[in-house]
Amino acid sequence: VQLVESGGGLVQPGGSLTLSCALSGGALSLYVMYWYRQAPGKKREQVARVTRGDITTYEEFVEGRFTISRDNAKNTVYLQMNSLQPEDTAIYFCHANRISGMGEEFAYWGQGTQVTVSS
Questions:
Q1: Tens digit of pLDDT for each residue in 28-86?
Q2: What share of the chain is helix, strand, coil (3-state, %, to 5)?
């Protein structure tokens, strides 16, 4: 399984970006999908999650501004980011995770896409 993120870039404060994460070599429908981010000098942190049943959860610092969604037919997960602020500047990573019926964990990461919020 491979994950490839896209859609990052430079945006002004208050602007919007939509990140995409394409999964290949497997079926997105099997996985719980996450977006994480890592700012310079900081630990990687979870941003949002969407379950196989389309239940979404968000960290408090993005609640109401970011929206995670999945399109199993396209094997793609998205992160719509609105009202971006300089503190949202980070590398954003896509993460796929599932537990098999035998209890084996399968976890994959993308290479990340840079989001820079600056005037």
A1: 999 999 999 999 999 999 999 999 999 999 999 999 999 999 999 999 999 999 999 99
A2: 5, 55, 40
Q: How far is CA 82 from CA 4, 60, 100, 105, 107, in A?
A: 22, 14, 35, 33, 28
Helix (H) or strand (E) run with residue 52 in it: none
- Beta strands 113-117; 9-11: pairing state: parallel
Q: How many CA atoms lie within 13 A of 26 on its CB side?
A: 17
CA distance 15 to 110: 24
Cα angle 25, 76, 87; round to 5: 120
Q: What is the pLDDT of residue 52?
A: 97
Tokens 């994460």 correspond to what residue? Answer: 21
* Sign (positive or negative) of CA dihedral 57, 102, 2, 112: positive
